[in-house]
Amino acid sequence: MRIRLIFSLKNKGAYLPFHHQYILAQYLKGLIVKGGREEFFNYNYFNFSGLKGQTKVSRSGLHYYSSLVTLVLSSPNEDFIDYLLEQVFDTPKVELGNLILAPEYTEQEIEPELESSNKFVCISPLVLITPSFNDESGKRFINPDTDEFSDLLYESTLTRMEKSGWYNQEQMESFYKFQVVPDMNYVNKLREQQKKFARIYSVYDMDVKYEVRGYTLPFTLYAAKEVQDFVFKCGLGAFTHKGFGMLDLANHLPSQRTEPYKFKREGFIPYKAHTERQKPDELDKESEKED
Questions:
Q1: Considering the entire predicted model, what is its pTM?
Q2: What is the DSSP string of the chain?
Q3: What domain range includes position 35?
Q4: Are 107 and 128 found together in one domain?
Q5: Model confidence pLDDT, tens digit, residues 23-67
């Protein structure tokens, strides 16, 4: 399930760094620990986007000017989503970087019908390699149209699926078909415009800082429907629980894919009545605006 968590912005014009996934990861990790349920302390089968809203770019970073901003959360575990949202709405004031936010309401995205081939866009950067300590390999550039690019994503996806315990051996063996085909017209157009589709990002794991290369580009994934569903809900590539590798279907209007979120626990509704709704363009699902 994919949930849109909408915050009101109390200080318009405040900014976040261009690459702020680590700030969001620290915020969500704090909420997970705050709730006290130890079974979720090291739970990794969730994913989240960057913070979406109307922004302007400066040397400082992204300045937010919309009254509402949105964070997309995804996980196949409804109990985990409920638990995380309960912690969110138990904290009426949130400071992320220079932004002062208040949680307002949530929406659930209607699950799309995934095929054996789907064109995706990245709404957070796609990381191929998990580096080890004092290791520079995570920053290595890998051309998207090479077999290595697709193979690394295949290996990380199948490893995560196997560790989840959700699939039997027969199913795992049937997932051999997997190919990522990037939209090289898009990539070449960016190159011609001297814009980047691959950058170095900071990520923190066990209080250790790593630098990794992330890619933001459209691509088509050819794989079994179970694999498509897994990456759509849990992310693709490395550090997905740190906010990397979140995908969305290309050419789908986000405003047409939501419904009110029904919280499983009775007596708690993660929603505040609000007359203003997030505009579709504020979700900026392509995340192609280059700094």
A1: 0.86
A2: -EEEEEEEESSTT-EE-SS-HHHHHHHHHHHHHHT--GGGTT----EE-PPBS-EEE-SS-EEE-SSEEEEEEE-S-HHHHHHHHHHHHT-S-EEETTEEEEEEEEEEEPPP---SEEEEEESS-EE---PPTT--GGG----TTSHHHHHHHHHHHHHHHHHHT-S-HHHHHGGG-EEEEE-HHHHHHHHHTT--SEEEEEEEETTEEEEEEEE---EEEEE-HHHHHHHHHH-SSS-GGGT---EEETT--GGGSEEE---SSTT---B---S----HHHH-TT-----
A3: 2-111+252-283
A4: no
A5: 999 999 999 999 999 999 999 999 999 999 999 999 889 999 999
Tell me whether residue 99 is in a domain: yes
Domain holding 146: CATH number? 3.30.70.1900
| Domain total in the chain | 2
Asked whether residue 290 carries a pLDDT value surpassing 50, the answer given is no
Q: Are residues 269 and 213 in the same domain?
A: no
